[in-house]
Sequence to fold (336 residues):
Amino acid sequence: MSAPSSDPRDRKLLLVVDAPSLLHRNHHARAHTRIMDRAGRPVWALHGMLRQILESIEGFAPDAVIFGLDDRTASVRREFYPDYKAGRADKDPELVDQLERAGALLDALGLATLTPPGLEADDVNATGATWARSNDWNCVIITSDRDAFAHISDHTQVLRLIDGGINGSPLLNPTRLHAMYGVAAENYLEYAALRGDASDNLPGVSGIGEKTAAILLDVAGSMASVWADIDHDEGRSLVEALDGWAAETGARRLGATVLRRLTAPGARERFDFNVRMMSGRDDLDLGLTPDTPGTPGLLPLDIDRVSRVVGFLDVEATTALAVRVLTGDPASRSAR
Fold:
């Protein structure tokens, strides 16, 4: 493990890309373009993802890039909870086709991809953040999924893609996350577990919404402290602290109500279940070898390879951008 840098600006940068997230957004945003590759197959989602990747590499100047992909053949989470993500609409066959081809496109370029067996891109995000801290790198995760907020730290930021694309999306660090949600970065997983996640079919703790969850964690510090007080003092200190917060802020007293909801049958079990489901695996082998030039994940890439692979998408401007961004001296070198 490297010794900590005295200045975060001196750290190298790992870019972790949630490829399925980008593909989903670009499919819905760009389907009207009907862009086809030279074989006549739909590529608007792949092309949009690639454009955003290129813009990100140009803007962030990373030293290494890795793309997380979902295992589309098996799911550990669904085996544990068959209703995981139940209720989502069936995917458009043209999106499915591009999701299945994404890994081959990125691998053909010479970029690093990881499809963890039975797992998801979310787990690659979690591992990337842990890898960066362990190796004293900085990390930027690019995704539209709020789950990645749990990985924000003094080493990791999250670029959450919204409708404005790369340049119009917020880059969240611990300070900005707290400003948006009122939640400390280290508490985000517990906040999400209390709130629940409808998109993954994970109900929250009944009666504890986003605002209450944020207040609870801000006042109590952690759910470990909350459960300990409930177990050993029937929640008296929790009620006192929440009512003290209400008195200071002029808000209504909520201590007794929150305690009642947290001690309702099944509440703690629901919280623990959500934590288990939402926690990303952070111990995967990313296969990154930054000290070995030419290995996948490192720039620059081979110019002929980039020209051939991106050229097959049949968008001349994107091919030119890819050659400029991916095959020259790494932007990170000139940026420092």
Notes: The chain has a mean pLDDT of 93.
